[in-house]
């Protein structure tokens, strides 16, 4: 099994940046595809970004392309989400998720989840 803990959320003004971290523990973390999802109040949880186990492939929701960057450091058992040019509509609880096979762009496709970290972008 995999345990995931997110950190790095906070309050930032529009146009600012934050970097989220997801610390993972588990024997097979290195081989897991990882992703970031987010859920705003009253909204469904949605895909933000994903990365293959090797880090050679990344995927982004259209809403964050060019602004967010997902990366991973398997030696540190950590996945990151660098968020630049933040917009108020980025406000949400951000969740780290893991899949032992491939990146999934729907929440139901991910097997393990962190508790989330809140990102609030003010206008």
> What oligomeric state is this?
single chain
Shape: globular
Number of strands: 11
Give the termini distance in whole angstroms: 40 Å
Structural class: mainly beta
Regions with pLDDT < 50 over 5+ consecutive residues?
none
Order of SSEs, N→C? Answer: EEEEEEEEEEE
Overall average residue pLDDT: 94
Beta-strand content: over 45%
Number of helices: 0
Computed Rg: 13 Å
- DSSP helix fraction: under 10%
The major β-sheet equals: 7 strands, mixed
How would you portray this structure in words?
The chain is mainly β and 123 residues long. 0% of the residues lie in helices and 50% in strands. It has strands spanning 3-7, 10-13, 18-25, 33-39, 46-51, 58-60, 68-73, 78-83, 92-99, 112-113, 117-122. Strands 2, 4, 5, 6, 9, 10 and 11 form a seven-stranded mixed sheet that branches. A four-stranded antiparallel sheet has the order 1-3-8-7, with no helix packed on it. The model has no long low-confidence stretch (mean pLDDT 94).
């Amino acid at each position: 099994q995999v345990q995931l803990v997110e950190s790095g959320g906070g309050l930032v003004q529009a146009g600012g940046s934050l970097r989220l971290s997801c610390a993972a523990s588990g024997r097979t973390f290195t081989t897991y595809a990882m992703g970031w999802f987010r859920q705003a109040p009253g909204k469904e949880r949605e895909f933000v970004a994903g990365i293959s186990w090797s880090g050679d492939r990344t995927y982004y929701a259209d809403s964050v392309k060019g602004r967010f960057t997902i990366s991973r450091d398997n030696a540190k058992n950590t996945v990151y989400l660098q968020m630049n040019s933040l917009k108020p509509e980025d406000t949400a609880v951000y969740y780290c998720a893991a899949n032992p096979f491939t990146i999934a762009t729907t929440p139901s496709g991910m097997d393990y989840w962190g508790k989330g970290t809140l990102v609030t972008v003010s206008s």
